[in-house]
């Protein structure tokens, strides 16, 4: 992830949450009062969000001590200590919720991605995400997908051509849409075409598509139609694919499987901040 973009995003998130001041923290604690808390996993999964913890608390207060115990992509067990943060009570409390929200979300996506990848073992299929991300969180969510061992599809409308059903309808057909896209974008940009029928598949092949997406197609149909696709055209399956049925698609011989569920349906991993009672002795990472 781009460090500058991470900090700009975190600033916006903190402004949304803190506003002019943290009324709760500032009403009962002075700037001089200090202590610490630790982040603990309340369930097992893939950890993701080390940079968010480090940069997030230091954006709130550059004097806060932050030590993240785990690396992104590591499997953590229930009860495991993930990070230790020490500093002003005010600073810890001001940053806690936003940072936890992000780390829980990212860790949940990374865990879901890892589960999806596991379902493709022994096949040639690779897992990727979609643009079905939470507005404002795409960079974080797509990073989490990679952390879980899957791949990113295009990041947005700006970095790849993907001709879906509405593009094709507006253009008057697959051939018209592909020709116009290739004439406009040049040779360095690949063109992906979405198809749902064998007739559309044949038209996409004849039109010179670089990637063909089998959208909402049954695994049996994909397996039957794949031999029609020349080797130089990449293939992708999407639509209606879940962790429960992904294996059925992986064994068809498809090259890529894109899942919106990696981001739009992933459950956040349960992580909490456990503070020490005032006056207690700090034991760090014991």
Structure, explained:
With 286 residues, the chain is an alpha/beta fold. It folds into two domains: 3-111 and 267-275, Alpha-Beta Complex (Aldehyde Oxidoreductase, domain 3); 117-264, TIM Barrel, CATH 3.20.20.70. Helices cover 41% and strands 19% of the residues. It contains eleven helices and twelve strands. The chain has helices at residues 3-18, 23-28, 50-60, 89-118, 138-147, 165-171, 174-185, 198-207, 219-225, 246-250, 261-264, and strands at 34-41, 45-46, 65-68, 75-76, 81-88, 126-128, 161-163, 191-195, 211-215, 234-238, 256-258, 271-275. Strand 10, helix 10 (246-250) and strand 11 (256-258) form a beta-alpha-beta unit. Helix 1 packs across helix 3 and helix 4 packs across helix 5 (138-147). The longest helix is centred in the middle third of the chain and has 30 residues, at 89-118. It is elongated and about 75 Å long.
